[in-house]
Amino acid sequence: MSGPLYRDPDAPVDTRVGDLLGRMTLREKVGQVNQRLYGWDAYERASSGGHRLTDAFRTEVDAHDGMGALYGLQRADPWSGVGFADGITAADGARVADEVQRHVVENTRLGVPVLFVEEVPHGHQALDGTLLPVNLGVGATWDLALYEAAAEAAGAELRARGGHVALVSALDLVRDPRWGRAEECFGEDPYLAARFTEALVRGMRRADTAVVLKHFAGQGATVGGRNSAATELGPRELHEIHLAAARAGVRAGAAGVMAAYNELDGLPCVANEPLLTGLLRERWGYDGIVMADGGAIDRLVRLTGDPVAAGAMALSAGCDLSLWDACFPRLAEAVTRGLVPEAALDAAVARVLALKFRLGLFEQPYASGRAPHETPYPVRELSERIARASVVLLEHDGATLPLGPAARRIAVLGPGADSVPHQIGDYTAPQRPGTGVTVLRGIREAAPAGVEVTHAVGCALTGADLSALPEAVALAAAAEVAVLVLGGSSARDAETAFDDNGAARVGSATPSGMTCGEGVDLAELSLPVAQLRLIDAVAATGTPVVVVLIQGRPHALPDLSRTAGAVLSAWYPGPWGGRAVADVLFGRAEPEGRLPVSVPRSAAQLPVFYNGKDHRYRGYVDQPASARHPFGHGLSYTSVSYGEPTLSRTYVSLDSPELTCAVTVTNTGRRPVCETVQLYVRRLSGGSSWPRTRELRGFARVRLAPGESAEAVFDIDADTLTSVTRDLSVGVEAGELLLETGPSSDRTSGVSLTVG
């Protein structure tokens, strides 16, 4: 074709990148590695009711004769200050995105399209964006196919509105549930997180959506569970636990990773050359982009004393694309001062341009010209399905649930019973009035004709105020069953204060309804005093009690076996989660969820994750060291028995470690069940480091009718038996292993395998 080679769609991406890069000035190159402007500052509401581009946006484009990426064009939330009065709805999304793109393409020398980067923590964080349950709820489903379908549908929704790149939390683990961002994690286990990360990337890629995975690396292990604090991780702990999901995401085709705020051994991730270049680029061979977390490069001025040197430090370490900071826009100065070679800038620009070429932006930069991506299910349906599958039955007396005809009057109590904001988690856009189904409404809609459903708040979400308790107790005393909806909230509002990166600023002296979310870390994990008193007071009436926990982290739970007939965790189940919870309560759906995290007895016993090092320590004198409810735990409305696992071979060689492990599972009760059969590997001898208690290495969801048996068969290969070796590479090591199967991490039976 005639014209520049970079415009030739038939030319290889590397060739097109090289041609375009060779035409760029230093100023234009710097523009391609920056996304300085907040996207919501690129437009304003016009008097006609539409939207128009702002002078701030035009100035930003002119500054570098182009723009690498624009973050959050359609973001809406209390931090951005964007709502329905002035924001971009679904009806306007594609049109406004095209107006922004058209200005960049038609008013710059080379016409390089801009990447639209959007937050997709659990659905697109935009007005009319469809919300999914938070990641911790997704992890509780243990259903990879369901989440992959939801990721595809969410990606398709994003692309239809003009977005290109989804920022999604996937790499962090809940190693300390005091951390406010626990809700953004798939769980505490590296294997589970890795499989969900793969499902996320596969689904998004089918919708032609690029994924940047957050956060790289180790952010879930900060000291004291405090956000953005240091991580005191040895190299082996980092590789064994905190890099597994990143390895999986890179292998699945993630477009990028986001360098985290935390530091590793004194060096912030965004400036950590051994991490971003030595490991990610050289050892893993990764060619995607590395994006800095918001303002993270500016924090390096604390080390360099100079913003120009701070930008050079991050670029030299392997960071390709900034986010909001003031340092990367000065990279031209860093090059001319000799602080960083222009070749390093060229490498970063090349990776950004390669992503734009792979997304087809040079051929079709506008959303209005793209054919819509058809998905098998709409996002809303998938959101409700995930919510239903995420409900974990933690405790049950075998009689209280499911609710039956005898429950003619149901008292629905608690601060979370009738609140959609309490169900939807952090990083959410304002919802249209009437959106969603609360637990109270879900119960009222699901209750048989003639059943009376009463409601009282009972207590505040936080604190010890008991002024609302008498009404709740009276309603409970007059009911056949009391459903207490307790837990926490990540709901932000107009009164919430924020740090400069959008994290909530909540302190003991600042009244807030938030008990979870970014910036909301807790020292004490137990439920607030008023909620515990509500449980005791309602139980004292003699009315059977069901506790439903709406939460973004596993709260430390007391022994509720004598006060509650059933305890369920519904996490933050999304806008329609109330219907999902009601379906489980009335037995329209079986409880399928399994814990992706361990539930502690108290914050004092942390850490409580199941896969710690197997030193056979005795625990504490004053309380058990074991979790209240272990990783993988979840009850059903029936009973299930497990046979002993069997292996196709009891010895495998290092060169060919393939075999199968099978276990027969039988539904011995009267109701159907979806049983999550779990496979763990436990090292008995050999290996290059001290072994962990056990490690999840497989799971299978098996549906059984009453009386039915089925065999769960696991294919065991090098990936199943792999471990981090002495030189921190990944491989199979000789020794004696125990392959264990069971319904949870603390209820397993094993069979020995020799690897040699």
TrEMBL record:
The keyword Hydrolase applies. SMART domains: Fn3_like. Gene3D superfamilies: Glycoside hydrolase family 3 C-terminal domain, Glycoside hydrolase, family 3, N-terminal domain, Immunoglobulins. InterPro entries: Cellulose_Degrad_GH3 (IPR051915), Fn3-like (IPR026891), GH (IPR017853), Glyco_hydro_3_C (IPR002772), Glyco_hydro_3_C_sf (IPR036881), Glyco_hydro_3_N (IPR001764), Glyco_hydro_3_N_sf (IPR036962), Ig-like_fold (IPR013783). Keywords: Hydrolase. One of its GO terms (molecular function) is hydrolase activity. Residues 675-745 form the Fibronectin type III-like domain. This is Glycoside hydrolase family 3 C-terminal domain-containing protein. PANTHER family: BETA-XYLOSIDASE, PERIPLASMIC BETA-GLUCOSIDASE-RELATED. It comes from Streptomyces ortus.
